[in-house]
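Researcher: Structure prediction, please.
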Amino acid sequence: MQIAVLLYEGFTGLDVVGPYEILSRMPGAEVVFTAVQAGPVRTDMASLALTADRPLSEVTSPDMLVVPGGPGTEQVLADTAVLDWLRAADAGTTWTTSVCSGSLLLAAAGLLRGRRAASHWIALEHLPLFGAVPSTDRVVFDGKYATAAGVSAGIDLALHLAGRIAGDAVAEAIQLVVEYDPEPPYAVGSVAAAPPDLVASLRSTQLAVLPR
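Model: Predicted structure follows.
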């Protein structure tokens, strides 16, 4: 199974690395990092880069797409090369997936019209602009489309996918190998749990996934 992971300037690192650590451990998985041009691609924090081994033009028939989100999403929404590639690649995928605001890119490509989709909480309101139906669930499956909420939810998404593709026993083994048993120190991991003033402050700062 070839898993194509899209990279673009300003993506969020864990959106990619989290799913990669899970999906790459499935039997028969081949993960390909791809971008408009091959070479290093910087994350939103700039101090980290991942390498796109192949340009989009060389990744034509993946079995799975993984599209991350991040502050760079806004620029890619107008990148016809990426959107055209998403549409073309999606035509032959078994699974088309996203993490965080990556669902906006799938929606902008016309792939989520009329479908339920998750995204980072600050990006959810943008999904209807592209015909998608926003969901506050952490992971959403709608046909072959699977979308995750913000950043860390990509790990949950990947484990769900591993279970559906390789079976529960394999997914459980992977979860134990990476020792995914989160015990967060603060109960503010969702908008519903966080204090309203914290939510409001993040909406108005550069920490937002998309500029307001």
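Model: Residues 153-166 form the longest helix (14 residues).
Researcher: Thanks, that helps.
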